[in-house]
Amino acid sequence: MVLSYLLSMDFSCLLAILLIVVRDIVDAILSARQLKFRSSSFSFADMKNFSPGYIQDRFETWSNNRSFVDFSLMINAIALFAFFVPLLQVSWILSDGGKRRISSLAVVCVLVLTGAICELIVSLILLGIHGTETWIGNDFNLEDWTDDGGDMIGWRVLELVHTVLRGMTTWINAFEWISIFGIMTTLFIVVKSERSYSHSNTGAETFGIKWALLGLVIGILGLFDFVAEILRLQSWVTFVTISFLVRSINMFILVPIYLFILGRQLPIIKGSFEEWNHSDAGKPLSPDENVLGTDTS
């Protein structure tokens, strides 16, 4: 029964849910592994002072988890692409196949492409950074840069470069949530107006307002996540915690529920949309027809 229920869902939504769940599991494993380091060795003061001992411990922990980190980066980019596919379908249906609300369709398409491409670029950049940092940390001399020896300057430089490079990708990486906020807000506005339109057009199925409201909540939380990502430089512990909590609520709970509901609605609405567009009711009046639909010849 469960299998038949899942098979009745839209495939793109089902695939997106699967990828997001896999991503969540990988992130949970990674967070659990990193928590061990934070509880035993993490010190914000040591981090700000570029303490060599702290840097080496962090590098060792990160190296041991690098496979999870890299896999998490790629699965996150792929999951975001998969998440955006059904949203494009929704936008296309709400625009009546590009016949109405062209501006809304254009906004969603631009945000989808921009958000997905930015996430992919950041993931590829970070993969390259991780590979180079691992190579430098394992094979290069980072401990003896002066005549005295044991100065550990190399480790400090590596950590400084790592921090700067991560800072360069922060805005780009956080932009995905700006994209999601814009997409969800646009879809909510369009769905709300579409409800009144569908009531005056028999046979035109549309998306539920509660589902659209859930999307708006996801978008607003995503906006909070974006702000927390940017403000973490003002208070690292506070805003990292806020970002983690908001992202966990969104990705572990709300987004899968959102996709599950959409997956149940989308096949029905797509069928109604295709039937409506192939019927005479869904076609524009010809020049030989008046507004009442009668032939003037």
Automatic annotation (TrEMBL):
It comes from Chaetoceros debilis. The chain crosses the membrane at residues 71-93, 105-129, 171-191, 211-231, 237-261. Keywords: Membrane, Transmembrane, Transmembrane helix. This is Uncharacterized protein.
